[in-house]
Amino acid sequence: MRYAISGSVMQSLEIELTQGEAMFTESGGMSWMTDGIEMETNTRGGLMSGLGRALAGESLFMTTYSCSTPTAMITFTPEAPGKVLPVQLAPNQILIAQKDAFMCAQNTVKIEMHFRKRLGAGLFGGEGFILQKLTGPGMVFLEIPGEVKEYNLAAGQRLKVDPGHIAAFDPTLNYDIAMVKGLKNIVFGGEGLFLATLTGPGRVWLQTMPIANLARKLMQYMPTKSS
Q: Which of 20, 51, 173, 198 has the fewest CB atoms found within 10 Å of its own CB?
């Protein structure tokens, strides 16, 4: 498998498959493809697996695209302005991602829902209790609104983040939520009541434009019915 990511604000992911290779994505995730690609849509793992993915922001059904000729090409595009993030997963390596981040992956990758175990992280962690758990081996592609910044935290190193900006992270990171200190910071700081603390070791990918922030900004310009 070879891939190329093109564009800046609205990127496209072009993947070249050889015979026998396959990619899967949520229903409706493909944009265009050449001859030689076969489609098969199912719940991928059964109804309960499909329902779990639906809770994690993906479709109940997934579509697998298999190459039936020596080579063929298929292209995927994101649903919102942002970046396509490629991550190579080793066997049994896990990546935790925000809801609706999954774009597509090699057929060997497993996607499941992931629960935040801590009550505070689930209630105030920006994306709720349910996230996406991706398990290797294989290449997985995420679609992240805005730009993406990656940090590799050493053991014990901490990073405090507005929870909505966390796009994906290694499960080795310790993830916790704490209330912002100081009454003036809470009332006038404009950053919300809670901050996430990520403690290494492990990688984290942060997004510059959470889709919820974009939606709130656009709502200011939406026409409203006059009373």
A: 20
- The whole-number average pLDDT for the span 206-223 is 82
**Phi, psi at 101, each rounded to 5°:** -80, -30
Query: Model-level pTM greater than 0.85?
Result: no
The CA distance from 221 to 133, in Å, is 36
**What are the residue ranges spanned by the domains of the chain?**
2-217
| Residue 131 · residue 56 · CB < 8 Å | yes
Task: Choose among 90, 132, 102, 92: nearest CA to 115.
Answer: 132
Higher pLDDT, 19 or 57: 19
Question: Measured between alpha carbons, how far is 60 from 77 in angstroms, rounded to an integer?
Answer: 19
Top-level class of domain 2-217: alpha beta
| CA 58, chain centre distance (Å) | 10
Three-class DSSP category at 218: helix
Q: CA-CA distance, 176 to 120, in Å (whole number)?
A: 7
- Mark residue 92 as left, alpha or beta (left: phi above 0; alpha: psi -120 to 50; beta: remaining): left
